[in-house]
Amino acid sequence: MAEQNFLVEIGTEELPPKALRNLGQAFADNLQNELNSADLAFDAIRWFAAPRRLAVQVTSLAGAQPDKQVEKRGPAVQAAFDADGNPTKAALGWARGNGISVEQAGRLKTDKGEWLVHVADIKGQPAAELLPAMVEQALSKLPIPKAMRWGDKSIQFIRPVHTLTLLLGEELLPATILGISSDRTIRGHRFMGEQEFQLDHADHYLEQLEHRGKVLADFERRKAIIEAGVKDAAAVAGGIADLEDELLEEVTSLVEWPVVLTASFEEEFLKVPAEALVYTMKGDQKYFPVYDTNGKLLPKFIFVTNIESKDPDQIVQGNEKVVRPRLADAEFFFNTDRKTTLASRLEMLDNVLFQQQLGTVKEKSERISALASYVAAAIGAEQAHAERAGLLSKCDLVTNMVFEFTDTQGVMGMHYARHDGEPEAVALALKEQYQPRFAGDDLPGQDVSAAVALADKLDTLVGIFGIGQAPKGDKDPFALRRAALGALRIIVEKGYQLDLLMLIDQARALYGSKVSNQNVADDVLEFMLGRFRSWYQDLGYGVDVIQAVLARRPTRPADFDARVKAVSAFRELDAAIALAAANKRVGNILSKFDGEIPAEVNAGLLQDDAEKVLAAQVAELTERLAPLFAGGDYSKALAELASLRESVDAFFDQVMVMADDDAVRLNRLALLNQLRNLFLRVADISLLQ
């Protein structure tokens, strides 16, 4: 059968915009897996997604599966016939299942015996017969968090389904999926073009949907059109658009026929902090704010409508009317909030619960203040500023602005602190305390901010672990994984020489009797070290390198970072494989010895030249590397240790470690112990693969 293009489209009610890309991609991936499993060859597969449809197009799809031969092995000849040579029930049943007689079966001889065998010719099924079930399977595996039912149907899907089209070339494939029978009906735009039309061929889908239905089904094309249009509109307005990809994706998922327009708002609203205005424009209205070349917000915004209007000014004016009350609310809240200082709101936090067992947000603020002061002293930041910022860190949570526009927390604290005359370092710390908010986010820009951010994250980690509510599976209601990784990033990337155990102990002490878990320090430390594993894997470091360092449980994150980089570099040396193997061998030897190993090597007990050479090198390196270990120069230390390769190889080739003489044996074990301890000052390199 000739190759043809295949199209499937599911027409629905409006699909959730934030999930649209994932749904489209998953539909294509699932169908591709089905085709591969069925051995149906094709050239390429593409997904399309718009607010009211999901579609997949498969090009150059084979007309049928290839014919193939399948070898079906039966019972062993010994079990297939009785003593008189007559077929047994096992042989007869197997033959009947294959549609042959026992006499027609072949014989398969192997080293393990002889079996009955039947080579069956399996004719490939036509693609047209297989595709409906494949589509149904692909749809059933979509990542749908919460399915819904509609009307009186028991069928469930992410949204009600209205149309189903399966076309193989020009042939309509009969099928009933999700309660809908396949036909050629394609629904166009709700208000433009043909609301319904008949699709004659799979190849004509995009073209006819665009020209007849006024729908651009290609997600990436719509996104590119919107992005280019918004950039052009911003340039005309004399600025640069805030084209955040997440918002761009969502807007792309909301429209079938994108039309980019520009609107404006009154300049008086610019007296309100830009973050609040931007929050309502982007979050509530899905508008693109516009900034000048200096990053200052302009009184303009760009939006995307889903229709080509004969009078676009009406649409512009309508959007301006919609956004104006929201901006007026922001202005009112801002002016009202400034009538009361941030510091005066601290008492209000006594009525806000942080966690039932851990007390109020006011108590948390006081702990953050004390811990931030401790951290500031350790990193050389201004303690008084860190203490003050910690105390005020959550006060903006009870302002009108943050209550209404929750994403502005921290930012509004900064603006209100400046208005109250607080030091700039304090004001900036209120904004930066939540950084980094996500992977790749900026770190706090100043040390005072970093002290407050670390205090906040560690207070949450110790508190929640302290009452035995560690994250389980994918459930992490207090975002402890993000808090741990954020704290580690701050310490490592800013080069702070902070010890996690000291920070955890300090945070633990501030909770007093509220914390009941006696193992909280170990639990939090292990949890944070576990974040190192995923973080450094994402950075491209080998799992074995990370494990080698984790085996030493370094509690200073900056020290951990230095060790990982050193071990990764060491791993590339020619001597690394041999020394890793030698360390593993040494570890095995030492682990099997039950007695006490001397701390020092007795030079008088050294007999063979190989052990004398190794002992001299180990003694010399022990003294020479001490300042390198103390200074954290692990890369140089490991490079020096690589010079031991030949001596270690010679030792194991020429020296019997477990000598008959007890004193000689213990002396050799002491030498190996010193050798291993040199490497363990950095990592357990025996774990390197």
Overview features:
single chain, 689 residues, alpha+beta, 5-stranded antiparallel beta sheet, 4-stranded antiparallel beta sheet, 18 strands, flat
What does this structure look like?
- The chain is α+β, with helices and mostly antiparallel strands and 689 residues long.
- Helix content is 48%, strand content 14%.
- The chain is built from 25 helices and 18 strands.
- The strands form 6 sheets. The chain has a 5-stranded antiparallel sheet. Strands 13-15-16-14 form a 4-stranded antiparallel sheet, with helices on both faces.
- Helix 13 (411-420) packs antiparallel against helix 14 (424-432) and helix 15 (447-466) packs across helix 18 (520-538).
Distance linking N and C termini: 51 Å
Q: Sheet bearing the most strands, described?
A: 5 strands, antiparallel
What's the total number of strands? 18
Strand-residue proportion: 5-15%
| Computed structural class | alpha+beta
Spatial extent as radius of gyration: 35 Å
Query: Regions with pLDDT < 50 over 5+ consecutive residues?
Result: none
> What count of helical segments does DSSP give?
25
Helical residue percent?
40-55%
The overall average pLDDT, rounded, is 91
Q: Based on CA inertia axes, which overall geometry fits?
A: flat
The spatial strand order of the largest sheet comes to 2-3-1-7-8
